[in-house]
Amino acid sequence: MQTTEPDHSPQHGPDALSPPPVGPEKLPGIRHIIAVGSGKGGVGKSTVSVNLALALQQLGASVGIVDADILGPSIPGMLGIPTGEPPAMTPQGRMIPAQKHGLKVVSMGMLTGDDKPAVLRGPMVGKYLKMFVGGVQWGLLDYLILDLPPGTGDTQLTLAQSMPLSGVVIVTTPQAVSLKIARRGLRMFEKVQVPILGIVENMRTFTCPHCGESTDIFRHGGGEQMSQELGVAFLGALPLDADVVTCGDEGRPIVVDQPTSVSSQVYVTIAAALVAQLHAAVATLKPFVWKWDSNQGAPAWLEDAVRPAGARNTPIGLLRRDPRTLSILWEDGHRDDFDVRDLRLSCHCALCVEEMSGRKLLDPKTVRPDVSPRQIVSVGNYAIGFDWNDGHNSGIHSFSDLRALGERAMTKNVENV
């Protein structure tokens, strides 16, 4: 395996002042898929999701929203959409989303009603989630907002592995316990290579409508401080506003019901900041299924997207350099050339490595010299999976693991010189 150091000369990257290339559609007809998440419940994440979607719409965008909290849907009530009324279907079997206040909406609440719980195991939750995103006749959308359940469980992993997310917005309150758990959720998305678009601090300050005195009920500025510590954007801080709750309970989100209110104006400011973050993002690779021998479905090689300060673990190009070599170009300009047999030997799946001890189970002598991929597929934003011609297909290689593998090989080569 060979490695190439980043070349930061002008001919290998865009001018720092030039706009980045525009990314591809995430799904047919959908420009951006944005998740809104939180580490814990009770921080107002669904309220933020709904009003953020409406604020994006006020900026001229076409927007849809998926209530991705399959077991605890709340979006229909916030938008005044009747529950328990299954959506119509197209002749091709795709769901037609409900529409309210100009938003296209899909939620489990539309199927079950208010008083009927969705009692589902993890795999079924994932199945419904995929159907709510990929099995819906969305039409043309600029943004599809996914309102996630709290935590770092099945739903978040399903999205990271199967949906081409543009990024995630993390919602927190200034309270110390909320910030700690929000940080944990943020780290989870970083681990699976989902871009963090920014942090929203909710319920920052309460202003008494009678005397005008402001009180920081849940403390002040914690979300902004966290964004500085973690090096991610701070999109804005929302006040603790009783009208937000009242409007949401009555199915009239505040951005629609009171567009000139302080809260509504903050939502529009947050939406504009979010759009700016998306425009600043560098082009990423489209999802792919790559037939190795024929090179059919090969991903792009975006050399113009190299940036000196680019991400170390974000690939902007994959290439079949020859039948035995997979080349990866990273956003910071570094290039690794992997012998495909080395990748087969480095598999970390449960068949090749003992999960608890880390002991290698794969005997290199059992891997034939001419082993090669039949196909390589993208896994979310964070990994690639291999289907090998020796029948092995259960392992994935995360981009962080691949970058580390390249660095170890480079160090070994230097030591042998």
Automatic annotation (TrEMBL):
PROSITE patterns: MRP
GO MF, one annotated term: ATP binding
Cross-referenced InterPro entries: GBBH-like_N, GBBH-like_N_sf, Mrp-like_CS, Mrp/NBP35_ATP-bd, NUBPL-like, P-loop_NTPase, YlxH/NBP35
Stretches for region Disordered: 1-28
Compositionally skewed regions (Basic and acidic residues) per UniProt: 1-10
Origin: domain of life: Bacteria
Any GO BP: iron-sulfur cluster assembly
Residues engaged in binding ATP: 39-46
Location of the Gamma-butyrobetaine hydroxylase-like N-terminal domain: 319-403
Keywords: ATP-binding, Hydrolase, Iron, Iron-sulfur, Metal-binding, Nucleotide-binding
Subunit text: Homodimer.
Role summary: Binds and transfers iron-sulfur (Fe-S) clusters to target apoproteins. Can hydrolyze ATP.
Family: Belongs to the Mrp/NBP35 ATP-binding proteins family.
Protein name in UniProt: Iron-sulfur cluster carrier protein
Species of the source: Polaromonas eurypsychrophila
